[in-house]
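Technical annex B. To support the medicinal chemistry partners, we prepared a structural model of the target in complex with adenosine-5'-triphosphate, based solely on the information shown next.
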Amino acid sequence: MNKTKSTLDRIRELALRRGIILPTAKIYGSLAGSYDYGPIGSILKRKVVALWRDMFTDENTWEIDGNVVLPRQVFEASGHLEHFTDLMVQCNNCKSILRADEVIEAQVDVNVGETRKERMKELFTEKTINCPVCGSVFEDVELRPFNIMFNLDVGPTGKGEGFLRPETAQNMFLNFRYTKMGVKENLPFAITQTGKAFRNEISPRQFLYRLREFNQMEVEIFGTPEIFANHPALDRDLEITFLPKNGEKAFRSNLGTLVTEGIFPNEYFAYLVGKAATFYRRLGIPKEDLRFKEIPDEDRPFYSAINVDVEIHFSIGWKEVEGTAYRTDWDLKRHSEVSGEDLDVLYNGKRVIPHVVEASFGVDRSVMAILEKAFHKKEEDRKWKWLELPPCLSPFSVAVFPLFDREELITKAREIFEDLTSNDIDAIYKEKGSIGKRYRFADEVGIPYCITVDPTTLEENSATIRDIKTKRQIRPSCEKFSSILSKLLKGKAIFKDYTEGE
Ligand code: ATP
């Protein structure tokens, strides 16, 4: 059968070919739901996290770096032991075990809540739903809950019980008191963390979308309902596409209106939603592929009073990449009750348990979104696929090549490379392989500009700069490289400005 490749398959191939994203333990046949970041992917991931850190570090924000193994009591208190479950369904024919809500949603035009067991059972009976693995129809299904936390035997006796954290958030609640004390903060203040989280997903799939080991970037702002009512830096005019929980169509609205109409609980929540919108726009996600979905009450995580997810339109449909939640005082209250520690603070002369608004971003889903939006199939203008990344995410801003393997050209190209680097331009130097292969490398990993040093460079002290998008070239004198590239990279000029008149 000649099956056409999906966009994700093509991206997966490119990512493997160029050391961007690699299946974990590939030489042993890979590990389901697991990917490694290769050399180019690691740079991309680092740049995503750096941009996030830059955008989410306001005044009074403190980053921590917590342990991934946490004791059982943490999850008794947080509710994850009891509630962090997905319903699974087993196919009677091929015995595959799958996530029930995903099987239904892929075949029936309905949004089932992860928690509504009875409704899901009804759907398996009412509709003809096929096993996605072997194709047989599901009959007499049993839906069983499965807690998706990884349980560990800790220490040589195996008696210590630990869990791999399913979200980075818990460290921030556990360390709330000591962070506050250590940095002498008063409410409101925020704690952030980026790092690994682990979920024993029933059916990991769709490239970086559903992994068992993944990366999160989370911010928890601690305050009170009164504090959260007004945010001094809220951009009330910022417009988003909002999909309400009542099943009505998505509409455009500004953040101010969503607060005034009581759809958002407070301005701090709206502020985080606005930041998420700006963050994804900077990652190169077009406005029309970005929407904010209010989660229906029955689907909301157990700890949250309101949840609004960022969804991006991927080639596989609209998919969640981030969640903004008003966690109220749930977490600190529960940890205080179970640990016996006072987690209340003095605020306006009263002792209060702080409330929390949270934004929880997936690094890997963000990287997948970046790759999807940057990816260009092989077209007539070039024989290979290429990535059009926002300049701030490109693994390198410019590649410098000597045209041939000749000493004078190599010396000159190296000089240009050093000069760019000393001017803080993120450059890479490559001399091996034909020039076509080196352009292909640059295109496939998303380097926006290439400088090629040729024999004329030695005579005239000029060289070509090639633009990834148009493949057009300009030939300025070498002293101008840094200033031209700085302008292009900062968006202060476009390539066309220089090609006019060429
Ligand atoms: P889903 O409904 O897709 O399982 P979730 O609502 O449980 O996701 P959250 O608990 O809100 O996810 O986690 C916050 C973010 O962490 C998600 O928006 C996503 O970007 C990321 N994330 C969660 N689970 C995974 C996973 N298994 N693989 C990759 N990223 C994940």
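Notes passed to the chemistry partners:
The longest helix spans residues 39-56.
The chain has a mean pLDDT of 94.
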